[in-house]
Amino acid sequence: MRDHDKIIMGHGGGGALSAELVEHLFAPAFRNEVLDDLGDSAAFRLGGARLAFSTDSYVVRPLFFPGGSIGDLAVNGTVNDLAMSGARPAYLSCGFILEEGVELSLVGRVAEAMGAAARAADVVVATGDTKVVDAGHGDGIFVNTAGVGLIPEGVDIGPRRAAPGDAVLVSGPIGAHGVAIMSVREGLEFGVEIESDTAPLAGLVAAMLAACPEIHALRDPTRGGLATSLNEIAAASGVGVRLAEHALPVPETVANACAFLGLDPLYVANEGKLVAFVPAEHADAVLEAMRAHPDGKEAVLIGTCTEEHPGMVVSATRLGGTRVVDLPLGEQLPRIC
């Protein structure tokens, strides 16, 4: 696995190193037909119901940042992973790993933030667990959440379903979360405060499905940013993706911050955005439904799927050329979720 015999930070970044770790280590160990789809959540039937199930762990540093906290991320991240299967999120679990010496008041603030986020997302934190590790063997607070939700009959969303001709839509401006984390972590000022976009997206997905139950694929572009999500779907479905660079919704503040830091906004994490692959004939209706919802009011069409260059993502530049938007090796900004 790229000549590494030990875990490095890049293995947790959502890029090529993460993909190799899953493909060559975890997937062979756990091989089964439910896991093989490798979506944001697993979809399966239990009794007469079709369920989505997802889990995620949060190690963000700092714990609190402009626009949110580790508590918001833990709830919204799992809610959004369930929603990317078209599910209606219902119940979450919560596991805290606490370092000896962390202030109880800080733990309380995180728990309160999680409770508020759960109520806003209309989900119930139904069970949980707490573990404490020795001082120096953690980083204050780590959080794990898992969740289940119900997938409506007739909904079949997955990365393998993207098809040539699909319109590629994104729900709004990208890159804010990663830049917000970095600005606080490194004490940087950009003239205006950049806030994380953390938000639950199940309501937006429900509105989109009401307009078009035939949505092919959804993904929330967190670690590795929009570029990673597009590459994962292109690889899973075998389609090519062609973006229009001028259509990419990068806020000026994020673009300026990324230019200062030497980052590409396409690879910077988001926590309240989604990318959708929609049959072309339904693209206008889905866009209209997205723009009518508070979490999708700035939704735009950014590209299309093609039979050309299968499994690859390319972008038509403003200068009339074309560049390959590759899968990153690791993560530009570690510890962002």
Automatic annotation (TrEMBL):
Q: State the Gene3D superfamilies in the record.
A: PurM-like C-terminal domain, PurM-like, N-terminal domain
Going by the entry's taxonomy, the superkingdom of the source organism is recorded as Bacteria
- According to UniProt, the name of this protein is Hydrogenase expression/formation protein HypE
Family classification: Belongs to the HypE family.
Q: Where is the PurM-like C-terminal domain?
A: 164-309
**Residue span, PurM-like N-terminal domain:** 40-151
* Pfam families found in the cross-reference section: AIRS, AIRS_C
